[in-house]
User: Fold Signal peptidase I from Paenibacillus radicis.
Amino acid sequence: MEDQVQTTKRGWKKELREWTISLVLALSFAFLFQNYVYAQSEVHNISMQNTLVAGQRLIEDKWSYHFKHPQRGDIVIIKGPESEQRLVKRVIGIPGDEIDVRDGAVYLNGELTHEPYVKGLTTIGSTQFPYKVEPGKLFVMGDNREHSEDSRSLGPISFSSIEGKVVYRIWPIAKFGNVY
Assistant:
């Protein structure tokens, strides 16, 4: 009888230890996944309207840009010294591109861009145009051009300031899906 009580006590302690280890490993994996692979983010301002609006929740890919550089058209999340806030913006120019703003429109390498997602006219800001994007930098703009703090006022964004790429909208449910 005494052996059975000892076995039960050891069995209970062993199971508690196994559950604790499993829980710690699961929480550690979730923390690492959230911080280094995919994360959930929320839109807090109007600079990306009509593509994204305040209150929408997004899935951010933090992993891909370790293997490749951002491309024109990518919607990125910026967290760096260029701004005190995390920003969501669209990549307009990559290294070597020449950006110009004329008559409320953007010209990329001398060609008028086709940007059906843009809301409002594109104004100049404090950047001198035409602007040549330097190596290791990106030129970004919000889709709501008249109400966006972006490369026109902040200057170019370093690759190292890019936290990740927006890949999915998960809230509201009616708008669930890829983000372009």
Q: What stands out?
A: DSSP finds two helices and twelve strands in the chain. The two ends are 69 Å apart (CA to CA). Residues 1-36 form one domain.
